[in-house]
Structures are given as structure tokens and as C-alpha cells.
């Protein structure tokens, strides 16, 4: 099942620093929403507010509403929200003490699944979903960190899929990868939109253009422009957006 | 020079070439029509020579645009300018080809060693308006002026009306006197070419609007 | 530049030489006792300066037992404190509390010893000692009668003194946990407790072990405070609630009043044993730290 996200008047702070200012937007279900903007514009903070990771940092604060299928994320238990909204990080972070297959189902184990055959089945399912199964079927018991960078990142995506989230947040998931791995991940992301709502932060505008359905441009904590990707890259309405995407910033 | 500055420089060069093509198109039309009006062989040749220059410029623009698209992955305004430059260069080249066709008509008329059997008021009017349309469309393109581009569409109606008028008039002449058919058809063809040129001027105006606003105007 | 290199080399070599000289000095000075008692020195349980019978076992026992009990008390408390300070409280509060804990390490041990005499010993005698006897008296280790000064009292004092060390090293170790790993688990929908037990503690483990070893080294060598509360009785009591003695305490207590040469030599041999124990602990700590570095 995939869900839609609705953000209303979101404000976020780090200590005194106001990093998100009155952001309101909707992310459609089964669509890929890309968030672009210069470094420090608040794009990562924005997605970290959605699964309530922002508040795990000391001195961080959030105001406003985020609705997951009309359910107010900030009225719920953050742990249960995070199991419904998966996240993939900038750099692949498989757990070094766990094997490939343990990594894939780490989230299920957290939730108390102990049955070995169920776990093995699920590991196979998600590794197949990310196109990793054929590459690692003989290395399932090796440490997750023994894989290549691109494989590790796909393993992390598999790990997020295993808990059957409705939404997947991705924070520059290809920024540490080579072009070939990047293409494979992009393909994967594009395929995943059939079953999930995907929100991806990227500093690679071509990537946003290639895979997303809608693109949001953030600048200094404000949502400057948000619209269909094709429209935004062909005829941005805002001068700032135009300058940013055509590389004439500052 | 940074890569962005180099990009901007290349794009400016493309538009400089486009402007040159515009000038060639206008001068081709005016010398071709002068050749027709005055049955002047020399003027006709000018338009014929222009054809080659225009073709080379069009190729140059195509190469440069391809390179920018390939290497710089332009978006937004940059993308619209590049795409439009490619399309407008094709339109301008077509215009020069039509001017060449008109010159060929002039040369044929020179060979016939006969003066005009009527004053070419309608054709002159069409020439004046089409040149104006091209100049306006190019200006609209460079200045990203949508309303100026829209004027080009208005003027096309005038050109169409003039052509219609010339058509009826010449049919009358040709029905009355079948010796006038050869020359009459030549006048008619010249009018037809000018009408086509006006059409291409509209395409340029359409490109100008796309560059300015990203909108795509449909004909009519 | 060259001159500077020579000067620093001289400093480094002289420090190493100092350690070596210390060891040989201990060895030669204890030679009379080593020659006279041989290996029985290590295993004899009687220490009688008047009869010139010297056995080190009660002190070795006292030192090891007080240190181990101190660790048993201090390690869980320190790890708990470190986890609390790094995971549960805002930075500013954590800073303040850490400062207060670390200040314990700065208190002179004689002052802690005084506190031990006036507060801990009476407390030991009345509620705590009797409580232990009542609840755990069926185990020989907690048999009565209850003395104020005892091995247990010494162990508690040591625990208090090593808590700041272990806490601060554990805190540092916890802070080296890669943020990306921690967030990876949090984002999968785990509770704070799961993050602590599955990511933070496993990551910090080598660092924590290093801290524990350092704390152990401190506990083994600690003299003043424990001397003031342990009771200074050279025996190996069955009960932890009875007085005992440690290597460091007996040296401090008897060295100035040792009359015979053999008494002095025996005390120095105790010093040698203490030296060897601390060196072994330090080597263990190094090995563990090296393994941690190799793992990364």
C-alpha cells in the first residue's frame, strides 16, 4: 500500500537557526517527488521531518502538521511512524555486524519476527525486488559491508522495503556512488513507484529530471516552486528556480 | 572562463548567427523581389548566392546546439533558447530558399524579354509585409516580447488577404487573354512563395513566444 | 631543528630509562626477601613482622578482591550513567552532570578516605552491613559479624573513585558510534533502547573495555582512601564484611616503621608484585585498544 503525504505550514529549527519556513506541499501516492536546492536549503531537513528523524537531533524543533493519509504524524508514536515511512541515507549504511541477509530483514527482526523460514523468505523477496538476489545469493552470510557501494545501497533499500513501508524517503541516495551504480539505483527507484510513494532529495538535477514526477525547489528554507518535473525544468515560473536549475546561482 | 560563461558565450554566438541568417533572409527577399520588379538579372543572382551562406549558417547552428545539448544538458530558458534556435534556423533557411525560387522566376522573366503587363502593387505589398513580419518576429525572439510576436500573426492575415486578391485578379487577366498565362502564373507563384515565407515568419514568432514564456501557441 | 630532535630524544630515552631503573631498583631491593622466602612468599598467608614471617597472599587477595568488587559496582553504574548522559539528556544538562561526575576524580583520595571514615563506615555498620547479612547471610561472603571497616567498604570506596574514569571513557566511546549507523536503525522504526543495545553498546564495547581496564589499574594502585577504610588486617576472611588489607595499603602503613631489613625488603617485594599486576593490566588494556583499532 502506498500513501500520500500532506505537509502544512511546516517550520523547523536547529537551535536558533530557522531551517524550514512555512513549507506546505503535498506528495502524491505512487509518485516520485524530487526535492532540489542548494546545500543548506533545508531539503534534507524537510524529509527528516516527515519520518520524525529531525527531532532525534539535540536542539532540533518542528512546528506544523504532516499528514500521512490524513493521519497526523506528530500525534503518533514516532517508532510506528518510522516503520510506515522508510528511509535510505546519503551513504550506504548496512549494519557491519550483520550478514547480507540479516541486514535485509533487520527491521523485521526488530519487530519481533523470529521464524527463520519467514525471515529467509522475506530476505529473498526484498533482495529480488532490488535486483540484488542474483548477485549475492551465494554471499548471503557475508557481512553486509563486504558488498560494493552500489550493492550496499541496494541492500539498504531492500532493508527499508522489508518492513513494508508506505512511503520511502531517500536522502541523496546516489551521491556516494559511481555512474553505473547510480543508473541501477535510478532504475530501481523508478520501478518502486508502482508500490510506494517516494520522496527523494537530490543535488543532481538531471537525476531529479530523469526519475521524478514532481519537483520541489527549496531555497533558504522556503519552498520556492513546486510542480510537475517536466514543467519545472522546461519553464520554471520563478526566476530563482530558473537560475538554480540552469546553474547560474550566486 | 568558467564552463557556465563558456556556455553563455556559445549561446550568444548561436543567436548572433541566427541574426545573420535573419538579415540574409530579409535581403534575399528584397533583392529577389527587386529582380522581379525591375527584371534585373544581377539582383536575382544575389539571392541565389545567399542560399549557400544561409545553409552553412543553419548547419553551424545545428552543430553548436547539438554540442550544447549533449555536453551541458541545458534546462529551462537555456533549453528553450537552444531548441528554438534550431527550429528558427530551419525556418529562416526555408525563407531564403523561397527567395531563391522567386529569383529563379525573375531570371525566367528576364529570358522572356517582355515587360510586366500590370503594375505589381499586390506583390510589392506582400513583400513589404513579409519582410516586416520577419523583422518583427526576430526582434520578438531577441527581446522575448510576446506581444510583438503576436502582431506577426495579425500581419499574416493581411498577407493571406493580399494573396487571395492577387489570385482573383490574375485569374481574370488570364481568362481574358491566354497569352498572359505564362507570366500570370509566374506572378502567382511569386505570390505563393511570399505567402509561404509569411507562414515561416509565423513559426519564428511562435518560437519567440516559446522562448519568452514557455507557451506553445497553436496556429489559429 | 636537529638540536630540537636530540633534546626530545633525550627526554624520551630518560623517561624510558626511569621506568626501567624503577623496576631494577624494586628487584634488587627485594632480593633479600626473594632469596629468603622464594615462591612461598606468594602463597603464605601469615604476615608477622615480629616473627619475621612474611606471606603476600592476604594482600594480593585483598587487592584483587576489592578491585574486582569495585568493578562489579562501578561498571554497570558507569555505563548506565554514560548512556543516560549521551542519549537521554540535552547537551547542556549532560555537560553539567558530566562535570560533576568528573569532579569526583579531582577530589584528593585522602579527602575521599575521610568521607569514608565519617560517612561510609557508619553507614556500612548500620543499615547496609546488617541488610546484607540479613538478605545474603546464607552465602559465606556475606556472613556476620558486621565490621565498619571491611573489604566491602574498601571496594565501595574504590568504586566511587573509578566511576568517573569509566564513565568518561564510555561516553567518549559512545560518541564515536557512527551517526549513520545509529540513524539507520532509528529509521527502521526501533526504540531508543534497541538503538542502545544493538548499535551503540556493541560499537562502544572495545572503548568501554579499555575504560574498565584503566579503572581497574586505578583501583589496584589506589592507596590512601582504601587504607583509611579497609581495616588493615592481614588475613583472608571468608566474609567480605570483615576487615582485610591490600598491597598498597600495607606498604604505606608499615614502610616508615619497618625496623628490620628483611621487613623492608618484604614490603618492597609487595611493591614489585603490585608493579607487575599493574603492568599486566596495562598491557591487556593496550592489546584491547589495538584490537579495536585493527577492527576499524
Structure description:
- Chain A has helices spanning 43-50, 78-84, 100-104, 106-110, 116-129, 133-136, 149-162, 179-192, 205-211, 229-234, 239-245, and strands spanning 5-14, 17-27, 32-36, 60-68, 71-72, 85-88, 167-171, 197-201, 214-219, 222-228.
- The mean pLDDT of chain A is 88.
- Chain A is of the alpha/beta class.
- Chain A has a domain at 5-93 and 168-245: Rossmann fold, CATH 3.40.50.
- Chain A starts with a strand and ends in a 5-residue tail after the last helix.
- In chain A, α7 (149-162) runs parallel beside α8.
- Chain A has 11 helices and 10 strands.
- Chain B has one domain (3-213): Up-down Bundle (Methane Monooxygenase Hydroxylase, Chain G, domain 1), CATH 1.20.58.220.
- In chain B, 87% of the residues lie in helices and 0% in strands.
- The longest helix of chain B is centred in the first third of the chain and has 36 residues, at 3-38.
- Chain B is elongated.
- Chain C has a single domain, classed as MetI-like (MetI-like fold, Orthogonal Bundle).
- Chain C has 11 helices and 2 strands.
- In chain C, α6 packs across α8 (192-221), α7 (179-187) runs antiparallel to α8 and α8 runs antiparallel to α11 (261-295).
- The mean pLDDT of chain C is 86.
- Chains in contact: A-B, A-C.
Q: Briefly, what is this?
A:
The complex is a heterotrimer of chains A (250), B (220) and C (296). By secondary structure, chain A is an alpha/beta fold.
Main features:
heterotrimer, B: 220 residues, mainly alpha, Methane Monooxygenase Hydroxylase, Chain G, domain 1, 6 helices, C: 296 residues, MetI-like fold, two-stranded antiparallel ribbon, 11 helices, globular
Topology:
The complex is a heterotrimer of chains A (250), B (220) and C (296).
Chain A: E1 5-14, E2 17-27, E3 32-36, H1 43-50, E4 60-68, E5 71-72, H2 78-84, E6 85-88, H3 100-104, H4 106-110, H5 116-129, H6 133-136, H7 149-162, E7 167-171, H8 179-192, E8 197-201, H9 205-211, E9 214-219, E10 222-228, H10 229-234, H11 239-245
Helix pairs in contact in A: 5-7, 7-8
Chain B: H1 3-38, H2 41-72, H3 76-111, H4 121-143, H5 146-176, H6 181-213
Helix pairs in contact in B: 1-2, 1-3, 1-4, 2-3, 3-6, 4-5, 4-6, 5-6
Chain C: H1 2-37, H2 40-43, E1 47-48, E2 53-54, H3 57-88, H4 91-106, H5 109-136, H6 151-175, H7 179-187, H8 192-221, H9 224-230, H10 247-254, H11 261-295
Antiparallel strand pairs in C: 1-2
